Structure formats: structure tokens, C-alpha cells
Amino acid sequence: MKRLAVAGGVNLLLGVPGVVPCFLVWYVMANGPLAELGWTQREPTENDGMWLWLVILVPVLTLFGLVWGLLNTWMSRRMTAAGWPARPAPYWTLCAVAPLVPYLTLVPLSL
């Protein structure tokens, strides 16, 4: 359990800079496809088009995804070598949910 708590803590800390990619994904979705469906309203001052946001979003999301994937793969291998059980489901579930906690904490505070 201690190793799983360490993995959760590392992913929670990784979620702090992960707020930026989460916000960028939401901004692009809210001003693009979701606004076209009528689910959100476009930002009235957003007149640069979506290309600029995709040029910003893709490198940021790629960098965060690479750091997250490489770090968690490395920790998973270390835990397996140290005798962690063969079932990886709890580890990867925790690693997928923990980085979202800082963003999901900030969303209600921003309303």
C-alpha cells in the first residue's frame, strides 16, 4: 500500500502543472465543437480562430502526456520488480485519476 500511496502522491503533484493542459482542452472544446452544438457559448473576444489554439494545445498536451506516461511506466516497472502484485488495474486507475484532482478542485473555486 505504501508504494501505491507514493504513486498517488507523485501523480497528484504531477496534476498541479497538469491544470494547464486540462484548461486548454476545455477552452478549445468550449469555443469549438461544444459551441457548435449549442452546449456552450463562444468567448466573445475569441476571433483568432482555432488554429492558434491548436498550435498551443498540441505541444503542451504532448509534453504533459510524455512526462506522465514515461514517469508512470518507470514507476510501474520499479514496483513490479520490487514485488508488487501482477494486477496493474489499481495502479493505472490511480495514475489516471490523481492528476485530475487539482483541476477538478479548482473548477468549483473559479465559479
UniProtKB/TrEMBL annotation:
The protein's name in its UniProt record: Integral membrane protein
Keyword terms of this UniProt record: Membrane, Transmembrane, Transmembrane helix
Domain of life: Bacteria
The organism's taxonomic lineage, starting at the top: Bacteria, Bacillati, Actinomycetota, Actinomycetes, Kitasatosporales
Residue intervals passing through the bilayer: 12-30, 50-71
